[in-house]
Design a protein that fits this description.
This protein is of the alpha+beta class. It has two helices and five strands.
Length: 76
């Protein structure tokens, strides 16, 4: 869902438009190191009356991205 769609669908309207969903995720822009082997970004999961926001740190090892750490900033 785009930002403009999110503005059109507040909580109740979103669930009427997309029944039986698990909410939605929003992502920040990703910040990479110069070698493009590390990345950090912010993600939020919104599910109406619940949700979570966190920073995610990943590393590229042997050509695959792995989760290297995360810091939860809020939970509802």
């Amino acid at each position: 869902m785009t930002g403009s769609e999110a503005a059109l669908y507040p909580y109740e309207a979103f669930y009427r438009r997309f029944p039986n969903n698990y909410g939605y995720h929003t992502f920040s822009q990703a910040g990479f190191n110069r070698e493009m082997t590390q990345v950090i970004f912010y993600i939020e999961h919104m599910c109406g009356l619940c949700g979570e926001g966190k920073y995610v740190y990943m590393r590229k090892i042997n050509g695959k991205w792995i989760l290297a750490g995360q810091a939860i900033t809020w939970v509802s």
